[in-house]
Design brief:
With 521 residues, this protein is of the alpha+beta class. Among the domains are: 8-59 and 238-320 and 429-487, FAD/NAD(P)-binding domain; 324-422, Polyamine Oxidase, Chain A, domain 2 (Alpha-Beta Complex), CATH 3.90.660. Helices cover 30% and strands 19% of the residues. The chain is built from 15 helices and 23 strands. The protein has a seven-stranded mixed sheet, with helices on both faces. A five-stranded parallel sheet has the order 11-3-2-15-21, covered by helices on one side. The protein has a three-stranded antiparallel sheet with strand order 22-1-23. α1 (32-43) links the parallel β2 and β3 (47-52). The protein is globular and about 65 Å long.
Length: 521
């Protein structure tokens, strides 16, 4: 059975490369989803105006300029992001401004560090499924033959049976914790192999759907033909992505309205939409609208927009939730960690700490600062933090665990310190999948995009944001008979799913296609 990248068929009769006549679109949100939608629309001649609440582009992968205490500027971000190799649609988007992807640098390993120095490595694993999982189990010191005899094989086989329809129908109602408990893995093995994985989606195991967990496990591991090793940007997001993308899109005629928050949208008439801003009486009209904002902003806009009156749509939006807070602490230290430390590690079982990044080992701006000062730029992440955790407590607990993992830093002097505590990432609670919004809405000319949107193929995080932006543009372009942008995915089903001949109601069949035989990149 061939397992590789697949093309997602488009149900479209579009035949035109560019729109004939006038066509206009408003994109609300300047993150990955909004930029993807604006790119596809503008490349086909649609007049695009993009509104973004912040004074910078990128949304949750945005970057902005801050200053050190002595006045020197530097670029700050909302934390480390991994560009996995199966992010096909995101990478296709990035090639608009970086054709050879030279701004992406591969990291050679994805180590997981636990208490008392425990470590797992994902380097050197086969990309062939299921050989990758067999190799991982064989080489981990936390599993032996006796342990394997106690594993719940029926539950474990679900990792290879992923099927959108069946998996969510049978497992969406239970929690990820209940599913992982059912595996009967030894505590140490479960902690090192699974806990860090589930936490990486910002959702706690006891309030995350087992269906979503298995979809993401399929997307990143058991159905991923590219392996778990990933790339990172070698310069800040502003330099590598957002400044180039703004220039690229402005050349295509896109008008950017940064620092403008949308309050509501209305029907101007049967053909046009109106977008109204906060603190601005001007109404901006367009033929179509893409709402590509995070969950809190989407709920606010829809709640204010009486013309978005379809009950099923409003119910789906009202039911969306955000997950627990996450924290990012970036430290500018007077000395580096030991030279054999990894650029990035995931952590598990270390209080609220979920990963550590040493930025000068992969990012140019931090490397130049470290060479000039002799110091180091170290970033700490904590995902799915306790509900009522405060800034002071988060700061201290992250630092305490840094010193536990890298004890050589206990005597460092912190030269500069930046801290973010945010709560705007989507939640995927049990039972939510069936009601989750899709790109298409009941209102003609209105589409959604973002990493909370449900897709008919496996996707997550940045890749889902980019893919849904493309899907939103493709859907709206049908009115102008425009050729859709190709979409690609990992295989939509697990290795053992077809054995059960289960139907995929409402989802188009995806034809397998070798990565080497496509021009998607």
């Amino acid at each position: 059975m061939f397992i590789g990248k697949v093309q997602v068929p488009e149900r479209s009769s579009g035949v035109l490369k560019r729109v004939s006549g006038e066509a206009s679109a408003i994109v609300v949100g300047g993150g990955l989803a909004g930029i993807a939608a604006a790119t596809i629309l503008a490349e086909r001649g649609v007049s695009v105006r993009l509104f973004e609440r912040e004074p910078y582009l990128g949304g949750r992968v945005g970057a902005w300029t801050e200053r050190f205490s002595e006045g020197e500027p530097f670029e700050m971000e909302r934390g480390f992001h991994a560009f996995f190799r199966q992010y096909y649609n995101l990478r296709s988007l990035l090639r608009r401004v970086d054709p050879l992807l030279r701004n992406l640098t591969p990291l050679l390993d994805y180590p997981i560090v636990g208490p008392a120095g425990a470590m797992e490595s994902f380097a050197g694993l086969s990309k062939q499924i299921p050989l990758n999982l067999i190799q991982l189990v064989q080489r981990t010191p936390r599993l032996n033959l006796k342990d394997l005899t106690h594993v719940n094989i029926k539950a474990a086989i679900e990792m290879f049976r992923y099927d959108d329809d069946r998996t969510y129908r049978e497992l969406d109602q239970i929690t990820a914790r209940d599913y992982l408990d059912s595996l009967n893995f030894p505590f140490d093995a479960r902690q090192m192999l699974f806990d860090v994985f589930s936490h990486s989606f910002f959702n706690p195991e006891d309030n995350m759907s087992a269906g979503d967990l298995l979809m993401m496990f399929h997307f990143y591991f058991t159905g991923n033909p590219e392996g778990l090793i990933f790339d990172v940007l070698n310069e800040p997001f502003s330099y590598a992505l957002w400044h180039p993308f703004r220039r690229y899109l402005e050349r295509l005629g896109v008008v950017f309205e940064l620092g403008n928050s949308v309050a509501e949208i209305r029907r101007a008439d049967s053909q046009k939409w109106e977008v109204h801003l906060e603190n601005d009486a001007t109404a901006h009209q367009s033929d179509v609208v893409v709402l590509a904002v995070e969950v809190p902003s989407l709920k606010k806009i829809v709640g204010n927009s009486s013309h978005l009156s379809d009950p099923s749509f409003r119910h789906a939006v009202e039911n969306l939730q955000v997950t627990l807070p996450f924290a990012v602490r970036r430290l500018f230290l007077d000395r580096p960690p030991k030279p054999d430390r990894h650029p990035f590690i995931g952590t598990t079982g270390l209080d609220i700490l979920d990963n550590i990044s040493i930025y000068e080992m992969f990012e140019g701006e931090s490397r130049r600062w470290a060479m000039r000062t002799g110091g180091s730029v170290v970033e700490l992440h904590g995902y799915a933090l306790p509900e009522n955790i405060g800034e002071a407590e988060s700061r201290q607990r992250l630092l305490d665990q840094l010193f536990e993992v890298y004890p050589e830093l206990r005597a460092v002097r912190v030269l500069e310190d930046r801290f973010l505590l945010r709560r705007d990432c989507p939640a995927f609670p049990p039972g939510s999948a069936v009601a989750r919004p899709t790109v298409q809405t009941p209102m003609d000319g209105l589409a959604l995009a973002g990493d909370y949107v449900r897709t008919p193929f496996p996707s997550a995080l940045m890749e889902r944001a980019a893919a849904t932006g493309v899907m939103a543009a493709n859907h709206l372009m049908q009115r102008w008979n425009l050729k859709p942008e190709p979409l690609f995915s990992v295989p939509p089903k697990g290795l053992l799913a077809d054995r059960y001949r289960l139907p995929r109601r409402g989802v188009p069949t995806m034809a397998y296609q070798s990565p080497s035989s496509t021009n998607a990149f």
